[in-house]
Specification:
The structure is a single chain. By secondary structure, the chain is α/β, with parallel strands linked by helices. The protein has 14 helices and nine strands. It has helices at 22-26, 49-52, 74-87, 101-113, 186-204, 211-229, 234-253, 259-271, 275-283, 291-303, 318-330, 332-338, 343-346, 349-357, and strands at 11-14, 37-42, 62-66, 94-99, 125-126, 136-140, 154-156, 161-165, 173-176. Strands 1-9-6-4-2-3 form a six-stranded parallel beta sheet, covered by helices on one side. Strands 5-8-7 form a three-stranded mixed beta sheet. Helix 2 (49-52) links the parallel strand 2 and strand 3 (62-66). The longest helix has 20 residues, at 234-253. It is globular and about 60 Å long. Bound molecules: nicotinamide-adenine-dinucleotide and zinc ion. Zinc ion (ZN) is lined by residues 145, 195, 199, 261, 275, 279.
Amino acid sequence: MNFKNFPMVSKVVFGRGSFNQLGEIITPMRVNERAPFIFLVDAVFKGNSDFCSKIPLLYTDKIIFISSDEEPKTSQVDDLVEGIILSSSILPSGIIGIGGGTILDLAKAVSLLLTNNGSSEDYQGWDLIKNKGIYHVGIPTISGTGAEVSRTTVLTGSTKKLGINSDFTPFDQVILDPELTIGVSKDQWFYTGMDCFIHCIESLNGNFINSFSKTYGETAFELCKEVFLEPLTEKTKQDKLMMASWHGGMSIAFSQVGVAHALSYGMSFLLGTKHGIGNCIVFDQLEAFYPEGVKLFKKMKAAHNISLPKAVCAHLTDLEFDIMIDVALSLEPLWENAIGKDWKTQITRPLLRDLYSKM
Ligand code: NAD
Ligand code: ZN
């Protein structure tokens, strides 16, 4: 038996208002005055002077605002890396990602590609990264993906949507400040929060489950039920969902996701559907795989008056269905976790076609 020895986030601070400590946290990590900190910040904060004034810029430090309308692409990572290299004579002191899963993943990928040659596309997969990235910090502003704690950065390339999974991917520092999530719209709060809920369902009901993952998964699952079904104050919901996201991410680190993620990756690759909403559209149709989880999901959806887009696959051609099905079926570990070693006897192309047709 060979047990994987996983790295974790090295340092983490939790607390409402802890974002104010960013300056004192990163200062000791500055290499020298010529090596800037590069802040990759969700464009939703552009023009928010109260927020931006808290970003501690010194010397040649720079903020790059990035829209998260689209999920991270390998080409986008490569462009960002090239821009950073061209604008500074030496490597930056650090990359600080401030935003949701999209920005956190970009920050991780940029940090890795600054010290690993070639295109980010060359590193999609498992343990392909050779060199340690530069110091990278993750500061989530919306809760649910677990990207703040995971050892992957999910990128869409020319041929696949796949993570750069490596021991060098996790953040060196994470700042968990629930106050940063205040401006999130209700629908987006639900979609990204449900990503966490679905991580729990897939992890807890998978074949790879073990006591380590179960402990984290059960904690996140209970927190999600409280946040989405109990009458809590806004502050308490923000705090609890941020911790649910962390625990949900920890749970899948030592297990795996399942059917919903396999299908939603396929959908996202073809249609560009974003992860949170895509997972919701898919999970809504998965009673056969996760009966209790889907029942709870529908209850939460009703409690918050969420109406999901319908018939997103209705107009697709045979070829397009095939593309989604190919991507979904390529994610073997997810199926093995959800169904078992003999998953190929049960998960057929017509079955997936039928499921996608309902979405
Ligand atoms: P996101 O980062 O795409 O953000 C969703 C929306 O919320 C955006 O419009 C953004 O501008 C907005 N937003 C974020 N913070 C806000 C705030 N405080 N106020 C107002 N608006 C705010 O969404 P997400 O669901 O967090 O991330 C999805 C991405 O995460 C996908 O690319 C997915 O592949 C990735 N992901 C990564 C992992 C991982 O382990 N690396 C796990 C799951 C998902
Ligand atoms: Zn997810």
